[in-house]
Design goal:
six-stranded mixed β-sheet, alpha/beta, about 220 residues, Rossmann fold, single chain, globular, disordered N terminus
Length: about 220
């Protein structure tokens, strides 16, 4: 390869690789908004966890949401044979807090609000739930998390076990999409969304690369 071209390519050592994983299925609150509620998930599908674990790097930094369903999912993946360097928790990747709407079904919420919003997210992204937060607020804290990780762990693999909302927010940060477009992505349970941050692409500056969105075996 021509040396001038080689020098313009992103440097691997400056690439920070985020492996976002949504928690496993939550059976006890089916069809209800559970946002910041601390509910258990189902980690009984050992084949699925083994297949997903095989895609993930060993000796990575693991960061989970403080909620049980994220920690249970991380434990099930590690039990499938992954070796990790460190595991920690970070509240910035919690699910959106739906406040007074937590525990409601989508039908109940629609009847209560009596409006015309029928999107792929319970609320318009800019609207704050009573005693809760908006998706835009969630996006801000996820961006803060990503900024800290890219500064403190540049060039590393970071496995983030979190929630649909926080993974959507990470996609918004990477792709700079309008918020209402961002919430259209379907993020499956135990799926992998892989985003790589290149800190210094020559002639372009910082760049994101999206390798997988909601990957499942």
């Amino acid at each position: 390869m021509n040396e001038s071209i080689r020098n313009r390519l992103p440097k691997h050592e400056n690439a920070t690789r985020f492996w976002w994983i949504r928690h496993a299925y939550v059976p006890e609150v089916k069809e209800r908004m559970y946002g910041s509620l601390d509910v258990d998930c189902d980690t009984s599908d050992k084949t699925l966890f083994s297949q997903v674990a095989a895609k993930l790097p060993n000796q990575a930094l693991w960061v989970t949401s403080p909620l049980k369903r994220a920690k249970q999912t991380a434990s099930a993946l590690c039990a499938a044979g992954i070796q990790y360097r460190e595991m920690t928790q970070d509240p910035d990747i919690l699910e959106q807090d739906f406040g007074d709407y937590n525990g409601m079904s989508h039908v109940e919420l629609f009847a209560l609000r009596n409006d015309a919003y029928l999107g792929f997210w319970p609320l318009p992204p800019e609207q704050q739930a009573p005693n809760g937060e908006s998706f835009a607020m969630l996006r801000t804290r996820v961006e803060n998390f990503i900024s800290r990780m890219t500064e403190q762990h540049r060039g590393e693999d970071i496995i983030c076990v979190a929630h649909r909302g926080s993974i959507l927010a990470a996609l918004q940060v990477a792709l700079n999409l309008p918020l209402r477009n961002t919430v259209s992505f379907d993020i499956g349970n135990v799926s992998v969304t892989r985003l790589t941050y290149h800190a210094d692409v020559p002639s372009a500056g910082p760049q994101w690369r999206v390798a997988d969105v909601s990957w499942l075996p």
